[in-house]
């Protein structure tokens, strides 16, 4: 009974430990979600997007008439002129004035329409900027995540060869003791062991740096130790890897391209907004007001609410004649800004095509390099094993053995590097086609 209880408790403990360890692993999906939730640049762009959204609403409401209210309460001592009775007095008097004025620009409506259009495309531009910032941050997270995994794998490679070199050093000591190898071979092997341990420490420093950079991107507690998913598999691009089809897809969904398009349209309506300043403005206005004077015999309610009420209707015309070429200069600058924005759109279309072409060529080349470096690693491994066998048979020397081992280590590191580089290139293709947000 006790044995069954102990076995059950042990299984439960191991199961909980495995569950806790699994929970401690930060997957790439979780890292991407944390980055989107916590990144400072994304938070700033969200604030800017909210600002342009509010300005868009402001522009729509500006199409309506404007209404303003005013009131004035005063007491005057000395010579006072009562505007209601037309009498000049030298007494202290109290005055109350209040009015509500409504005005509506009925002619220069093009100004307001251009303002509505500009604010709309400013908002669209900022929305695209926010989406692009998310995409860019996600690509940075992927890069740091893969760089950290690459350093972890390199540490495993260095650790493996440190253990191999330690065993090799022990074996060399035994052969020196029985006289099969000269004594100086110990120092040669020991120097190689120290070099490997030093290289491992350098790599551990890189590993810690990359991990800390990832922590900063995710804005998580830097005091916490994070574990990454070492079994990560790259998300492959789904679709035909054809430059023309990828180019059309990128133009349709890439957020940086959408942003430039919206900026160009906003510049177009900014130019329209400036040109509208040439047009005269005609405004209808209506004023409702009343006033009270203590010099009159009637009560406040009688004066303010009945006797002194005024209703004023009117038409206001403002004709621009000359302002030192200020309007002309503003129109010219706005037109040039619009032309420059259109040039940016054309240029980024070319940039997108070249970026896609480069990444396709890079992926193709790196796929071949993976095959070549796999062959290089296998060949270097075989050469090292043969040189090690020759050395312990007394037919080789420690220098040749060291060269063969270094070639094997270098080939293993290069293979690890190209594997993670190819993995990153595939995520980069998702970014350049505007579909990296599919990872969320």
TrEMBL record:
It is found in: Cell outer membrane. SUPFAM superfamilies: Outer membrane efflux proteins (OEP). Keywords: Cell outer membrane, Membrane, Signal, Transmembrane, Transmembrane beta strand, Transport. Residues 1-22 form the signal peptide. InterPro entries: OMP_efflux, TolC-like. It comes from the Bacteria. Gene3D superfamilies: Outer membrane efflux proteins (OEP) (1.20.1600.10). Its main location: membrane. Belongs to the outer membrane factor (OMF) (TC 1.B.17) family. This is TolC family protein. It comes from Kordia aestuariivivens. The lineage of its organism: Bacteria, Pseudomonadati, Bacteroidota, Flavobacteriia, Flavobacteriales.
């Amino acid at each position: 009974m006790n044995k069954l209880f102990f076995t059950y408790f042990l299984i439960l403990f191991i199961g909980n430990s495995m569950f806790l360890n699994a929970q401690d692993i930060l997957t790439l999906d979780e890292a991407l979600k944390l980055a989107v939730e916590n990144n400072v640049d994304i938070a700033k762009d969200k604030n800017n997007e909210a600002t342009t959204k509010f300005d868009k609403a402001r522009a729509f409401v500006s199409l309506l008439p404007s209404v303003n209210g005013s009131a004035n309460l005063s007491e005057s001592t000395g010579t006072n002129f009562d505007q209601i009775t037309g009498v000049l007095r030298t007494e202290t008097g109290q005055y109350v004035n209040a009015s509500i004025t409504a005005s509506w620009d009925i002619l220069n409506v093009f100004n307001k329409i251009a303002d509505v259009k500009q604010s709309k495309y400013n908002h669209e531009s900022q929305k695209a900027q926010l989406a692009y910032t998310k995409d860019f941050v996600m690509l940075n997270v992927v890069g740091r995540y893969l760089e950290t995994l690459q350093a972890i794998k390199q540490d495993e490679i260095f650790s493996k060869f440190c253990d191999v070199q330690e065993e090799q050093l022990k074996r060399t000591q035994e052969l020196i003791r029985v006289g099969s190898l000269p004594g100086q071979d110990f120092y040669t092997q020991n120097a190689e062991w120290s070099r490997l341990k030093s290289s491992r420490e350098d790599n551990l420093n890189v590993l810690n740096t990359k991990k800390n950079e990832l922590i900063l991107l995710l804005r998580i507690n830097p005091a916490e130790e994070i574990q990454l998913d070492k079994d990560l598999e790259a998300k492959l691009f789904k679709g035909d890897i054809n430059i023309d089809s990828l180019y059309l897809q990128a133009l349709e969904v890439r957020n940086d391209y959408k942003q430039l398009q919206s900026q160009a349209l906003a510049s177009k309506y900014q130019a329209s907004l400036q040109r509208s300043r040439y047009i005269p403005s005609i405004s209808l206005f209506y004023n409702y007001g009343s006033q009270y004077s203590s010099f009159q015999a009637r009560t406040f309610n009688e004066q303010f609410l009945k006797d002194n009420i005024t209703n004023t209707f009117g038409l206001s015309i403002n004709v621009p004649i000359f302002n030192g070429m200020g309007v002309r200069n503003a129109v010219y600058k706005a037109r040039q800004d619009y032309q420059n924005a259109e040039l940016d759109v054309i240029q980024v279309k070319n940039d997108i095509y070249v970026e896609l072409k480069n990444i396709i060529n890079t992926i193709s080349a790196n796929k071949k390099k993976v095959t070549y470096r796999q062959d290089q690693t296998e060949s270097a491994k075989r050469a090292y094993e043969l040189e090690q066998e020759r050395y312990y048979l007394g037919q080789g020397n420690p220098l040749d053995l060291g060269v063969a081992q270094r070639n094997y280590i270098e080939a293993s590191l290069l293979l690890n590097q190209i594997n993670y580089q190819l993995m990153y290139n595939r995520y980069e293709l998702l970014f350049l086609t505007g579909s990296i947000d599919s990872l969320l």
